[in-house]
């Protein structure tokens, strides 16, 4: 059985609105959180299941005092994992004019 941190932190990402601009802002904020966590050796797990509840999915759930819930994260320290292989840059970008 894998050993994980006994006391992980749970974070919630909220936006004031729930439209396309808010979704973009939430994605940008999530990107910064994940990159910062990685830089500090912190693992992150995303939990989107609560966002799939019928009340959340159809927009009938009113925003709480913190705004609209966009994502839940579990942050903590876990066992080391191997690096993901990366494709060479010349295979990803076409640098020809």
TrEMBL record:
Q: Which Gene3D superfamilies match?
A: NADH Oxidase (3.40.109.10)
Q: What is this protein called?
A: Nitroreductase domain-containing protein
Question: What are the top taxonomic ranks of the organism?
Answer: Bacteria, Bacillati, Actinomycetota, Actinomycetes, Streptosporangiales
């Amino acid at each position: 059985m894998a050993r994980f941190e006994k006391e992980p932190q749970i974070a919630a990402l909220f936006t004031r609105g729930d439209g396309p601009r808010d979704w973009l802002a939430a994605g940008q904020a999530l990107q910064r959180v994940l990159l910062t966590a990685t830089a500090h050796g912190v693992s992150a797990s995303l939990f989107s299941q609560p966002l799939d509840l019928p009340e959340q999915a159809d927009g009938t759930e009113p925003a709480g005092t913190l705004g609209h819930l966009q994502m839940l994260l579990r942050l903590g320290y876990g066992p080391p994992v191997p690096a993901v292989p990366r494709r060479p840059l010349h295979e990803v970008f076409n640098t020809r004019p």
